[in-house]
C-alpha cells in the first residue's frame, strides 16, 4: 500500500540528494581503477561500465528507502512509476568515457523534480573534491559556499564548452558547426561531462556552453546549480533545454551564442 506524503520540502530533497550523491561518488571513485567496458548503448563509443550500473542501483536503493513512493528516472535503468509527485532524475556517472580513461572530469548527478519542475539537486565531482548543491529559489553552493557566476563577457571573449555525440554523422555536423563558432569566441573546451561543464559555468571555469544530444539526466541536476548561480540554461530561441540543443550562459551571452548558433544547424544532424 502506498504511503501518503506531505508536500515535499525542497531543502530536505536537496539534503537527500547530497547524501546519496556523496555515497554514490565514493562507490564510483573506489571502483575507477582498472575499470573496463561492460557494454555499449547507442553506438560502440557509447559505453557503460559495471560501475555505472552498480552506482545507479545504490542511488535508487537509497532514494526509495527514504521516499518509497517517488519515481526514479536513471540513465542506465529507465524509470519506475511513483505516486508522490516527486521524480528523481539520476546520472550515476556522467562522463563515463572520462571515467574509463582515468580522467577526473566525471560526476554523479541527482535531481529532484516536483510536478515537472526541478527543485533540488546535487552534483558530486569526487576526483575534484567538489560537491555542488542547489534549491530552486534558494541558490546554489559548492562545498557549502554560495556560488555566483561571473558577469557576462562579450561573445568574442567567451570560453565556450561543448561536447560531441556518439554517432559519426552527428559528430561530422557538430564539427562543421564548431568551425563556424571558433572564429567568433575566445576558445573552445571539450571536457566530456555535461555535469562538469554546467557546474563549471557557476564557478567561472568557462563562460558559456552548448551541446546537442543531451538527455534530462545530463542537464537536470547541474542545470539547476548553474541557473541558481545566475546562468540561463535553455534551448534554441530561449526555449527549454532539450535533446536537440542545450545552451547555457549569462543571459546576455546566452542570447549572443544562441544567435550565432541559429543559422548553423547546431540543433540538427545536418
Automatic annotation (TrEMBL):
This is Inositol-1-monophosphatase. The keyword Hydrolase applies. Its EC number is 3.1.3.25. Pfam families: Inositol_P. Keywords: Hydrolase, Magnesium, Metal-binding. Its cofactor is Mg(2+). It comes from Streptomonospora nanhaiensis. The keyword Metal-binding applies. Belongs to the inositol monophosphatase superfamily.
